[in-house]
Amino acid sequence: MMERKDLSGQFIKVSEPDPHVLLVELSRTPVNAFHGTYWAEFGRVFDNISKNPGVRAVVLASALPKLFSAGLDFGGLNAINSFDKDPGRKALQIRAFCMQFQDAIAATERCPVPVIVAVHGVAYGLAIDMVSACDVRYAAEDARFSIKEVDIGLAADIGTLARLPKIAGNQSLVHELAFTARDFTAPEALQMGLISKVVPGSRDQVIAAALQTAKVIAQKSPIAILGTKRVLQHARDHTVQSNLEYVATWNGAMLQSSDTFSALKGAMEKKSATFPNLGKPPTAKL
């Protein structure tokens, strides 16, 4: 497994276990609690991954053996104490702070390639925000979740309440968990639709399962995978008719890609097709 030091940070380790697949590991001892520097780094790491044309799938996991993340480091909220004393101005500063935080955690969602999260042990509070922003969600059988924010006197504001009702098939259970902040297990997470697979074992086993899925995705056309992620996200937020029009416009361009012809030829010849990487984003020059 090759470490990608060009993409890693102070608290986040990035490696490349398979061609075109990255493993992003959260690594702030003792419990992966997030403060400002940590969540800003999280957003930066994923935005840098998004610019890398050789990446086709990403697995997000914890490097810590016993847990995924305990959520927010409350000491990181001390910055609010330095905000303006005027209530109106302070409200605007808190809003900007919250939106910067939201933007960092949403980096997995705007990443053009699929992000598969592999959860083990405790995943509390902010961890649910992070998990719900990923495309595919696996949990080890020892995973324990909680939408913890009401226990610290606030409504979850970094993504859980925006995304989870659209992910889950059991709205009553979502409401119960958000109102009570009680722990729920991997089987309950599967029942509600937060995750798609419960993996026997713990950290090593759930990461292995996620990496296997990432490896399969990485063998597909990167044009097709990118388009599929974009169209699925559009479908979540728009009507059926609007999405049909969107995908028709999208494929008006993308069906002209050489990937389509390579995939069709491979299928007819019963051979695995290979596909070139996506091009690098252009660098703007003034």
From TrEMBL:
Q: In which pathway does it act?
A: Lipid metabolism; fatty acid beta-oxidation
- Name a biological process GO annotation: fatty acid beta-oxidation
Report whether Chloroplast shows up as a keyword of the record.
no
**Source organism phylogeny:** Eukaryota, Fungi, Dikarya, Basidiomycota, Agaricomycotina
Q: Name one Pfam family in it.
A: ECH_1
Give the family this protein belongs to, as stated in its UniProt record. Belongs to the enoyl-CoA hydratase/isomerase family.
Matching PANTHER family, A to Z?
DELTA(3,5)-DELTA(2,4)-DIENOYL-COA ISOMERASE, MITOCHONDRIAL (PTHR43149:SF1), ENOYL-COA HYDRATASE (PTHR43149)
Tree of life domain: Eukaryota
Tagged with keyword Isomerase:
yes
- Protein name (record): Enoyl-CoA hydratase
Query: What GO molecular function annotation could you give as one example from this UniProt entry?
Result: delta(3,5)-delta(2,4)-dienoyl-CoA isomerase activity
Q: Which GO terms describe its cellular component?
A: mitochondrion
Keywords from UniProt, A to Z, are: Fatty acid metabolism, Isomerase, Lipid metabolism
